[in-house]
Known about the structure:
The structure is a homodimer. By secondary structure, the first copy, chain A, is α/β, with parallel strands linked by helices. The first copy, chain A, has helices at 9-26, 40-50, 122-141, and strands at 31-36, 60-66, 91-94, 110-118, 150-158, 175-178, 180-183, 186-189. Chain A has a six-stranded mixed β-sheet, sandwiched between helices. The first copy, chain A, has a two-stranded antiparallel sheet with strand order 7-8. In chain A, helix 2 (40-50) links the parallel strand 1 and strand 2 (60-66). The longest helix of chain A has 20 residues, at 122-141. Chain A starts with 8 loop residues before the first helix and ends with a strand. The interface between A and B is large, with 45 and 45 residues.
Amino acid sequence: MVEKAYITYNQVHKLCQQSAAQILSEVNPNLIIAIGGGGYVPARILRSFLKSPGKPNIPIQAIGLSLYEDLSTSDATEDDNKVEEAGVQVTRTQWLDLSRIERSSLVGKRILIIDEVDDTRTTLEYAVSELKKDIKAHSEKEGGNVEGTSLAVFVLHVSLYSGCFTGNCTANGKFHRIRTRPRKDRYQQILNT
Amino acid sequence: MVEKAYITYNQVHKLCQQSAAQILSEVNPNLIIAIGGGGYVPARILRSFLKSPGKPNIPIQAIGLSLYEDLSTSDATEDDNKVEEAGVQVTRTQWLDLSRIERSSLVGKRILIIDEVDDTRTTLEYAVSELKKDIKAHSEKEGGNVEGTSLAVFVLHVSLYSGCFTGNCTANGKFHRIRTRPRKDRYQQILNT
Lengths: 193, 193
């Protein structure tokens, strides 16, 4: 039987705090993409830990991807022990607004995608896949160059181990790294699924 | 001298919890707009308390408005007692994505805007003013009708009392209500500034 686990805000805070140094040294993000609604809280907390003294905050763009919420009509007040079930299709409710981003382009961005839970990997795969399409489209406008562009993922909890990311995946999978590397006009993604 | 106050995550959680019933009875929102980055955390928390049994979550759209962050280069690790200073100009880093919203229109939406702190009112005024422009533009496409459209604001903390909203402003100003009412082709905003 699946049991529901509860974590405190302080645990979330500390997970962000503990991962910040690794993220700064390995990713050094200059754009955070928060997957809403779950990614809002860790994105906001992590941003404070990623801020470098004397530098402005790392900008956050929110995207809305829903796997659970549109399909679920359950409520915690009805049955506290009910485990929310994931849907099978991602609904995209909001996407990036690039109007204030330099050249309206993701090229050259070291992107850190943040979500709350990686359960079926469906949402993360969707986000990465769509962002790679955007990066490809933007790079084509700029002559095909994607140098300096990278994608990394931070989630608070991974409940799916079998398809765990390779790369910098930690023991409990809190921090994953996905790189997009230019190889001619293709992207190679270090993602073991 | 201005002193910096610290609040716990549980206090934020409880502020959201305590306001939920009032918000449901007075606003009954069908669209949440989170002002990022500060509004992300209360928006995500409040959404859970606003969820009605048997109904899907209220959708959240994030917008990015910055008054502090782009201008501030201070960091908490440099000086914990330094109070972050507000800027004077709002920078708009992200706006609504209406592609998944019915008729791509805000008309008929009972909108709840959520932010963390209302300090100078500059950000909230900007958000309300821009949203009213959007509502006006959408309603003009639909024959001028704005029936059922409303704007309300929820913030965790108000540090500016002199210009406090009238309406449903509570003693410590945690919850404000702003209505937009159709009066011929104008909007009247119950906002005492």
